[in-house]
Structures are given as C-alpha cells and as structure tokens.
Amino acid sequence: MLDRWLIGFALVFLMFTVLSGPRQDYVAFLEIWVAVRGGRDPWWVHETWGYPLNAYGPLFTALALPAMWNELSPKLLFALAYCLFAVLFLKRGLDLTGPGPVGPGFSAGGLLAWLFSPFAWVEIAYYGHFDVLVAIACVAAVAGFLRGREVLAGASLAVGSS
Q1: pTM score
Q2: Mind listing the pLDDT tens digit for each residue in 57-81?
Q3: C-alpha to C-alpha distance for 133 and 138, rounded to whole angstroms
Q4: Dihedral of alpha carbons 123, 128, 134, 138, sign
Q5: Which of 57, 60, 124, 157 has a beta carbon 3.0–4.6 Å from 162's, enabling a disulfide?
Q6: What is the DSSP letter of 42?
Q7: DSSP at 158
Q8: What one-character-per-residue DSSP string does 105-147 give?
Q9: What 3-state class would DSSP assign to 72?
Q10: CA-angle at 110, arms to 98 and 156, nearest 5°
Q11: What is residue 52's three-state secondary structure?
C-alpha cells in the first residue's frame, strides 16, 4: 500500500514540476547553460547585473546538455532525484532510531511531513533549485560515513561540493 502512495506522490510531484515551468533562479540557470553550450565562461560577469550568475561548481555545467534537448530536463532531474531519494530514505532509512510504524526510523507523522513538506514543493518542484542535488550528495555522505563506508562518503561529499 505504501508503494502505491509513494508512486502517486512522485507522479503528482513530477507533474507539478513540469506545469510550474521555469521560474526564479531556474531562468538564470537556463541562461548559464546557453552560455556553456556556446563555449562561454559559465562564471562570466553578467552585462546587466554586474556579477556572475553561476555560484555552482563545474558539474553544474554538465546540465547544459539535457537543457539543450528540453529546457525543463534539468528541473525534472532535480525533482526525480528528490523523489528517488525520498522513496529510498523512507523505504530503507538510515535506521538511526529503530523501526517505526511506517519503516525504519519513521512514524506516520514523519512520513507525511517528508512527503508534503512545503519546502520540497516550493524549492524543488516550483522553483527548480539545483541545491537539491547538493543536499542529496551531502546526506549520502553522512549516510556513507555512518555505515563505515568512508570512500563512498568522501566521493559523495566531493560530488556535492563541485
């Protein structure tokens, strides 16, 4: 039963992501990715604003390729990454507090808070902020470290910071 709810959540979340289109920082991301595909420096000083639009590392520029096919591809990638992370986290968890009624370390209230947090709906699905990939990499680093997998933790942290 939980699987059906998680699939339904993911589908609604992804549809909302598409229907909300490019907004706020994501519009600047599109401009950066156009510059990258044109061979320009992704950290150029913007002619209108007087400062660089890009505050991210070099891996951010790799998103210029999927943006070339469809301008919402990276935004969908952010939302899909969040959905996959949420499902993995809910189904497997970090097991820090022991088994709960819903899964490892989760109560029904925790599940509802995680799935329906306005933060995820606004910051990821509506605005399409890239920071979700950085956050997932950082949480993966902590999870790897707590499980004694230091190489995975270091690699995750490196990906999150670049």
Answers
A1: 0.83
A2: 888 999 999 999 999 999 999 999 9
A3: 9
A4: positive
A5: 57
A6: T
A7: H
A8: TB-HHHHHHHHT-HHIIIIIIIT--THHHHHHHHHHHHHHHHT
A9: coil
A10: 70
A11: strand
